[in-house]
């Protein structure tokens, strides 16, 4: 792609983003969509969280959205949900509620930006009738053991006949000592899995769901059962490689979203916070060539989910919170200037270093050309920057894009655990 041609087209179509009020054009473009997907180019950038929070507040206030669903585990997010709804026995503060995010990378949700946002939701909920209160839920499925414990606690409380099935499934996992990798090796390579026990539990819990629908406690048990089934499959397929474990995870997230929408009723509206690699349509990237699907693609393919709007985010340079390896200490790292010829480079040139918004439509042929688009995970090495770009057709991947030219790192609640490269 000719750089001048791409930069010129961006300059023609881009909208300056200097104040939060400039987001009005995005809110207008969302229209009557019932599912709004808000991305991020990293899991450790403050501005991605604060802008998503501002968009979410407006969607809740102006368009009646019912809940926020995030790339986090269901049990930990459910603690936040109970806090913002002032439920009996809930945490007494946002920080306490977020302390349930106690597994690496804790900073993804236990940070000051999320603290401010959930305090806002809680204050808003206190002005609403209990049946109209905004929810906060997790779409992810890493919480295998936590979800099993939640299921058993629920069944014990309700005196359910499914309790023995749940205990049998839990007992199957116990020998692995909450070590997902050990279970994955045993199940995926040695054929010693707990799949049968989990499937039997899911069937029994689904029958219970149809017999006793309606309560949020039953939704909690239902999703935790789904987590248990799909987490088992995820860890079983992860050790063998290939795209299947990724696909299990994203299909799970879509299923959780659909069941939560069903819980809120036919007119329900959902806001989703996830990484760009999940919310931007996989068919517009090289993921499709590798046999991978994602949340953005799957939702667009669902007949009942046609009214959706996906917004990608990105940055040219700045700082980010991430780890050098999985489980390593979190650091404030430099995000280097985007490589020449990347999408972020084009946006930087077109805006002369300013923040910008873009709405995509079918007339923008330039934005259907393949361009490298940066993606930073919780594990990041700035010295291998070339490997962080996903070939993308931007106008097919998103409905809109928000560019923050220079970004700063998230502020985790446990600040003492952060290593700064600048100290």
TrEMBL record:
Coiled coil: none annotated. PANTHER family: ESTERASE, PUTATIVE (AFU_ORTHOLOGUE AFUA_1G05850)-RELATED. This is Erythromycin esterase family protein.
